[in-house]
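**Backbone shape codes:**
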Amino acid sequence: MMAKSETNDWITLNVGGQRFLTCRSTLLLKEPGCMLARMFASQEHNMMPSSQDSTGAFCIDRSPKYFEPILNYLRTGNLIIDPNVNPEGVLEEAKYYGIDSIIPKLESLAHTHTVQRDAKPLTRRDVVDVLIGTSTSSSKDKSEQELRFQGTNLEGADLSRLDLRHINFKYANLRGANLTGANMSWSLLERADLSHCQMEGAQMLGVKMVCANLEAANLKGSNFEDPAGSRANLEGVNLKGANLEGSIMAGINLRVATLKNVNMQNCDLRMAVLAGADLENCNLSGSDLHEANLRGANLKDATLELMLTPLHMSQTIR
């Protein structure tokens, strides 16, 4: 066993041109089986130390940037990595020096750090930058101007009050996004995930949302009616548990949509197509369903109080 005075000897390491002063005990005690410990251990367990520079420092041809967190871990037992240091680089050094106790944690950090940028949700800044860089000049070929966010990840993004008209959001992930007061008129949202979105007061004129997921979304006071005559298409949409109170939805296509447990109080649903829709336990009190098509719709336990116009036999329901 080494004498106490020996373990307290000071050692200078020259790692990639940068000097580190440390105590011998720091290198020996935390990871006695690692390369650094064996370099300076007692005679029977040691390995040949590296060459020394002109000042007597032991030279190690490795990156000082990634070595520093390793040395601090041996000193304190805590792994602390500065934000500007890639954990993957520290992992490689830990493997090189044989610091086995921190390898699992570093592998986890490296995996998180190396997640591809495309897998991370886009932010409001990303969207605004694209909108600002998009030409507003007229062109005969509208397809050349179409702004596409098809299949992108915008989960949780704050897109409130932005002008998002005529944008292709097909298959996009907008789960939990804030679209309060946004103008999404004539946009394509087919099969997009808008579940749990905040869309209160959004403008949705002529929007195409076939088979989109709007479960538990808040669309209170939103407007789907285009005075020019284009109709919003929400055929097959999932609005289970959503809030559409006070929304203007005249002429909207909600054929075979899931509207179970939806709050549709005081909605304008004149001439809306609700054929085959599931309106079970839906609150339609105070809504206007004049000339709405409810053929084959399921209105089990739906609330139909204070209707502005009574339902007629021609609007057959089951």
Summary: The radius of gyration is 32 Å. Confidence is low (pLDDT under 50) at residues 1-5, 138-144. Strands lie at 10-15, 18-23, 58-60, 147-148, 167-168.
